[in-house]
Write a structure and sequence with these properties.
Elements (H helix, E strand, L loop, with lengths): L1 E3 L5 E3 L4 H8 L5 H10 L5 H12 L5 E2 L7 E5 L4 E5 L6 H11 L3 E3 L2 E2 L5 H17 L22 H10 L2 H10 L3 E4 H8 L13 H11 L8 E3 L3 E4 L1 H95 L3 H4 L1
Antiparallel strand pairs: 1-2, 3-4, 4-5, 6-7, 8-10, 9-10
Helix pairs in contact: 2-3, 8-9
Length: 338
Amino acid sequence: MRKKRSTGRTIAFNDNQPCLLLLSQRPYGILRILDDQSTFPQATDQTFLQKCHYHHVSNPLYCKPKMPLPEFSIKHYAGKVTYQIVADEFREHTKEVQRTSLGKLQGPGRRYQPPTVAAKFSHSLFELMEKMAKCNSFFVRCLKPNRTKEPNLFELEMMSSQLRYSGIFETIRIRKDGYPIRLFFSTFLSRYKLLTGIQNLKQTDHNNCIVILRALCEHSPGELYQIGITRVFLKERLYLVLERRRERLITQAATTLQKHIRAYQTQRRYADLRKKVILLQAQVRGFQCRRRYQCLRRGLIRFRATVLMYLNRKKYLKVNATFHVNLFLQGTTFDQIS
């Protein structure tokens, strides 16, 4: 199937709808035939196989075996799969259902008919689709690295077949060729307007989205992006480029903000430390000045005492010499005075 774009180009991808109709379309889908055959008392595996051959032998997705084997094949998007009609896997389940259904009546003269495996599968699939439509689904695909489940053993062929049959390769190819990123105008502007530095942009104006894309992308519309009625459609390559630019700008802004915050914190710590250092220096210098003052004061006191002692001694000697001179002049000795 091909999906058309506004540029005239087409994206080729596998459409699984014919295969789904082959399996579940009323009234002759394979699962529908299986349900009908499960309710007929005289139905067998061969009657189920004959009806499948009769209704679908002309279908290009249905393959009838060349030999009379109890099997048929269906060409899925990833390859051809062969199915056996012998119900070996459900013999125990059939016995359990028969035991539980004994004695139960569905109506007058009719016994209780338990739901078939195909009906349960269809019902569970319908419930799953309803739940998926109500939420954002994320799938975790588990792959077996080897057939023996041994550690440190990687089989490339087995991994490739699992990726192919699970649709990973097809999904990657479709995402590469199409526009998998679909953003509303408001979401696109809120995420990427910071890359251009343009201010005062309306959040729902598609012209602003065009301005931003032309400023950020050298390609013309239709190559890497499309503008819809309410959304912007981006290719994976352009989306990754925009995200890297946005992440780089946000990282740069965060780094700048951290730089200024750290500078402010460092300046505050420096100012507090400077005050404490100045106060400590003042205390130390005051203590040193007081010690020098005390030492100088004691030295001055000793010097003053020494000077006074010298002067008093000199004065005393002078007085004493004068006294002896006077005694000598008077002819009196010191012994006579005593």
